[in-house]
Amino acid sequence: MIHFFKKPVSHLALPEKFTYPFHYTPHPLCVLAAEEVKEYIASRKEWQEELASGKMFGVLIVQTDNGITNNEENQIAYLAAFSGNLAGKNLHPYFVPPVYDLLQPEGFFKIEEEQISAINIRIRELENSSSYLNSKEKWKIETEQAKAVLNQAKAELKMAKEAREIRRQSSPEFSEEEQASLIRESQYQKAEYKRLEKEWKKRLEELETEVRHFDIEIERLKTERKERSAALQRKLFEQFRMLNAQGEVKDLYTIFEQTVQKVPPAGAGECALPKLLQYAYLHQLKPLAMAEFWWGDSPKNEIRHHGYYYPSCKGKCEPILQHMLQGLEVDENPLLNPVHEEEELEIVFEDEWLLVVNKPAGMLSVPGKAEDRDSVYHRLKKKYPEATGPMIVHRLDMATSGLLLVAKTKEVHRDLQAQFANRSIKKRYVAVLDGIVLSERTGSTGRIELPLCLNPLDRPRQMVSREHGKEAITEYQIISESERITSKSENTFNESNRIDELERSINESRKYTRIIFYPLTGRTHQLRVHAAHPEGLGCPILGDELYGKKADRLYLHAEYIEFRHPIYGDILCIQKEADFHKKYD
Questions:
Q1: Catalytic residue among 397, 434, 500, 544
Q2: Cα–Cα dist 5/84, whole Å
Q3: DSSP state letter for 47
Q4: Which one of 180, 203, 236 terminates a domain?
Q5: Considering the domain boundaries, does residue 114 fall inside one?
Q6: Shortest CA distance to 83 belongs to which of 302, 308, 296, 273?
Q7: Is residue 463 part of a domain?
Q8: Are residues 400 and 545 in the same domain?
Q9: Mapping DSSP to helix (H, G, I), strand (E, B) and coil, where does residue 278 land?
């Protein structure tokens, strides 16, 4: 399970702290390890068809201070893992084993799973049986028939009543005998209707009883399935006893008790990094650094690119890793470090009612949950203490730079937000895509309509969902395509980001697309997803570490905004060129 590097690595400095798994640049050792793992994966031809649909793999750099070798060079090694299972199995010689092998044939999971599968089969048999379907259809038909017959009978009763009333009014000197005859006629007709209604009710009850006999059994089986599934899930997650660097053990149910969802999501504990850390702790290996990469095609809804590195998922892994990383010295979340603390916020336009600022990349628009974090809102609230209302009219992603509209009064804020709501405000973004957009597929202009929603298991990522997503529309215009040969001094993946010579050589010759986006809606990460998704441009924005590859920044800039002044009624057009506009001409 432990792999020693094929090439010398003694010239590479070891990481000072363990990787922060939710926001990182792969350490050079991780890049080397990942390349070796990729070679191995490519050599396994029998897996290629399955892997073409996509799978996440991970590497963990470890120090083997346990007597495995006396060779100082070989004290640094790596472990490899895959998420979920591979080729129908959890156990493969090259990769670390799962924390718990739920696929073992004699294990309780497989046995109980077979029982639940048998219940599923019985439910499907009942739901699709000819007796059940015929009974339901007959009940439906005769219910409609009863309704029609009884409605007709009611109509005839009403007509007979109206006829008797006409006879009474036309013959005011009715005898008592004639009056009694009309009453008997009315009573008889009502009694006949009651008899008819009773007959149909009895008939429908008999048919409903036949249907209910099946429904009750189906519902009983579904209840049993639900109870057995919940019990199995709980028992299963109790087998996932996760270690940390301090030797403490917690099962998944205990770990997730403190979260909002309370119960572990399906697949928790089966991702690559928890497997890697568990194996390292069990075998007294010291974890030094990690990286996870995607192999194969992108999933239908999420965005993954072959060979790209990705952070660990939040929904499944964050609570687990918060426990498993205890006892390790871990890098700080770089997003928490204020990068513009000493810089003045550039104001592009201002009057007594509103202003437009040029938000730098890496600064929040609003503080979010961490109220003390540097943000445009904090800066302006301090600068304009007399301002009323929320001030920030719309938002830009933290990684996006550009024009941000700010109101000094709540009335102006309300007016500007209404302009956003009715889509009368026009915005233009400029971006650099990490690759070439195929002209035969997209042309120089186009329109992307992919509905978006939050990925609940991997915040803050967004996903394409035609079932749950909100409308998201982007128009675009390709400006230019170019191939740029980077030098060491210009390379966006520089030494400060800890990418070594191997990774640099991979990125030496890269192709780029300069593009303009016109968003017609304002969904979270809309431009980033529409650029990166296979059904969009299939080409992520340069520096988009959520949906593409990390660089020195996200190359997305809000360069133009046009709106009606809430007080004067004039149309204002504000523009601010991106600081990277000449870099990729």
A1: 397
A2: 25
A3: G
A4: 236
A5: no
A6: 273
A7: yes
A8: yes
A9: helix
User: Is 251 considered catalytic here?
Assistant: no
Q: Which domain holds residue 407?
A: 339-575
Same domain, yes or no, for 228 and 351?
no
What the block records as the tokens of 230 is 């919940």
Indicate whether 432 belongs to any domain. yes
Q: Which residues, 6+ apart, have CB-to-CB distance to 147 below 8 Å?
A: none
CA distance to 480, 488, 523, 544, 550, per residue, from 485 (Å): 16, 10, 35, 20, 18
Structurally, how many domains does the chain consist of? 2
Q: What is the DSSP string of 353-372?
A: SEEEEEEPTT-BSS-TT-TT
Tokens representing 229 are 């599934």
- Residue 128 tokens read as 């699709």
Q: Are residues 547 and 405 in the same domain?
A: yes
Would you say 546 and 525 are in contact if contact means Cβ atoms under 8 Å apart? yes
Assess whether 352 and 498 both reside in one domain.
yes
Instruction: Please state whether beta strands 556-564 and 401-407 pair in parallel, antiparallel, or not at all (unpaired).
Output: parallel
- The sign of the torsion formed by the CA atoms of 530, 531, 536, 538 equals negative
Angstrom distance (rounded) from CA 318 to CA 315? 6
**Residue 57 is assigned to a structural domain of this protein:** no
Task: Note whether 336 and 554 are within 8 A (CB).
Answer: no
Structure tokens at 174: 């009715």
Q: What is the pTM of this model?
A: 0.74
Domain finish residue from 236, 253, 277:
236
Q: What is the SS3 assignment for 328? A: coil
Helix, strand and coil in the chain, % to nearest 5 = 40, 20, 40
**Is the CB of residue 512 less than 8 Å from the CB of residue 506?**
no
| Tens digits of pLDDT across the chain (585 residues) | 899 999 999 899 999 999 999 999 999 999 999 999 999 999 999 999 999 999 999 999 999 875 454 445 558 999 999 999 999 888 999 999 999 887 776 677 778 888 999 999 999 999 999 999 999 999 999 999 999 999 999 999 999 999 888 888 887 777 888 888 888 999 999 999 999 999 999 999 999 999 999 999 999 999 999 999 888 888 888 889 999 999 999 999 999 988 888 889 888 999 999 999 999 999 999 999 999 999 999 888 788 999 999 999 888 899 999 999 999 999 998 878 777 777 899 999 999 999 999 999 989 999 876 556 789 999 999 999 999 989 999 999 999 999 999 999 999 999 999 999 999 999 999 999 998 887 545 558 899 999 999 998 888 899 999 999 999 999 999 988 776 544 333 333 343 344 444 444 344 457 899 999 999 999 999 999 999 999 999 999 999 989 998 888 999 999 999 999 999 999 999 999 998 866 655
At 473, which CATH number? Answer: 3.30.2350.10
DSSP class per residue in 308-355? -EEPPPHHHHHHHHHHHTTTS-B---GGGS-SSTTSPPEEEEE-SSEE
Phi-psi region of 442 (alpha: psi -120 to 50; beta: other; left: phi over 0): alpha
Range list of H helices, 70-129: 108-128
Residue 227 token pair: 């109870």
